[in-house]
Amino acid sequence: MKLNATQLKEIEENGYVILPDCFSNEEVNNLRKAMTTIFKEKTEANIIEKSSGVVRTAMGLHLRSKIFDDLTRHPKFFEPACQIRGHNLYIQQTKINVKAAFTGEVWQWHYDFATHFGEDGVPKPLALNLHVFFDKVTEFNGPLFFIPKSHKYGSAPSKLDTVTTNYPLWVVDQQNVKTLVKENGIVSAHGKAGTVVIFVDNLVHGSAQNMSPMDRAIFSVILNPCDNAQTKFARPEYKHGRDFKPIKASSYKSLLI
Ligand SMILES: O=C(O)CCC(=O)C(=O)O
Fold this sequence. Notes:
By secondary structure, the chain is of the alpha+beta class. It has one domain (about 5-225): q2cbj1_9rhob like domain (Jelly Rolls, Sandwich), CATH 2.60.120.620. The protein has seven helices and 13 strands. Strands 1-11-6-13-4-3-2 form a seven-stranded antiparallel beta sheet. Strands 5-12-7-10 form a four-stranded antiparallel beta sheet, with no helix packed on it. The structure holds 2-oxoglutaric acid. 2-oxoglutaric acid binds near residues 97 and 144.
């Protein structure tokens, strides 16, 4: 799947692009079945919500399951990522962020590079975060909020938050968010299951708690240029992949079995 000139421009200008109808219902249903199995595993790579104890984030999925490994290398992620960042990309991270009905908790305002730099010593904000919705995402069930163009302001000062949720996150302070939103507004990323969203490493984003009765699961793969790999190794492999060889596109047959 190749991005057209308008979509490439959207990423450059706004820092994100939303691509509806990328994966079929059959593919998403198979992925959801695999997700249920993954959530039952007792592993520290399944991080639970602070209050409800349900899975918040299941990580390291390409290391844990064939179908998620194939999804990670799927041409619908891989080809657009190559168009934007070139062909030498490694898998930095894979996860499903769940946000369960009624209980899914907040992701504070942040941009991914603050964590990639702060925790892993990634030199430059070149990683791409590529999502696929496993549920219909609406304004009600905790969609991601983006501040368009915020990636153009460089890296806003960030502070490590280990208190709000069970997932440590480098977050942007409210005064900076206020300024960025005043100048650029906020958009929410919604669409049907099977929608793909791509966004850049410096884009400020977050999401509110899910108080709706609808679950909201989103798969995420972060691909990073091989020559921009991590230089610090404090986090486990399920949070930052250690195989820095360039990936190839998968045959992705397992998505349809
Ligand atoms: O899943 C969400 O709502 C937010 C996830 C996120 O911001 C991230 O993975 O960087």
